[in-house]
Amino acid sequence: MSADCLFCKIVAGDIPSTEVFRDGRVMAFEDIHPAAPQHILVVPLEHVGMLASATERHEALIGHMVIVADGIAAERGVQNSGYRLTVNQGTDSGQEVEHLHLHITGGRKLGPIA
Ligand code: AMP
Ligand code: ZN
């Protein structure tokens, strides 16, 4: 846990969220400002900062995040229609929260990747 981290506080339940999944390694919750009909964030329970701070030690965890995300997409009915997984890394991406997270967006036709 990182004391000043918003997503660590959500993981700990200190800040409320609409949780959609949790296991021993990751949790997922609804994005508070959805950019698509389905917009869910998948985060590791442990604090990992930016993708740039991940190491080989995190390979299995990041793989698990992707598999969990696909399962959530299936549950939400967008696995077949299509969805996108996004990781923002750094200033040019618009990254706001420095706790690694996957955005799942879907439920509408998504525009080209900028
Ligand atoms: P990023 O720009 O990749 O760092 O994405 C951060 C995301 O977190 C944004 O899409 C925000 O809408 C979302 N967000 C910020 N605060 C909250 C919150 N309290 N609960 C859920 N999502 C949040
Ligand atoms: Zn954190």
Question: Which features does this protein show?
Answer:
114 residues, alpha+beta, HIT family, subunit A, five-stranded antiparallel β-sheet, 2 helices, binds adenosine monophosphate, binds zinc ion
Layout of strands and helices, then pairs:
Elements: H1 6-12, E1 19-22, E2 26-30, E3 38-44, H2 59-75, E4 83-86, E5 102-106
pLDDT under 50 segments (min length 5)?
Answer: none
Number of strands: 5
Beta percentage is 15-25%
The CATH class, by name, is Alpha Beta
What profile does the largest beta sheet have? 5 strands, antiparallel
Overall spatial form: globular
Q: What's the average pLDDT?
A: 97
Distance from N terminus to C terminus (CA atoms, Å) equals: 33 Å
CATH superfamily: HIT-like
Ligand names: adenosine monophosphate, zinc ion
What does this structure look like?
By secondary structure, the protein is α+β, with helices and mostly antiparallel strands. It has a single domain (about 5-105), classed as HIT-like (HIT family, subunit A, 2-Layer Sandwich), CATH 3.30.428.10. It contains two helices and five strands, in the order H-E-E-E-H-E-E. The chain has a five-stranded antiparallel beta sheet, with helices on one face. Strand 1 (about 20) and strand 2 form a beta hairpin. The protein is globular and about 35 Å long. The model has no long low-confidence stretch (mean pLDDT about 95). Adenosine monophosphate binds near residues 17, 95 and 96.
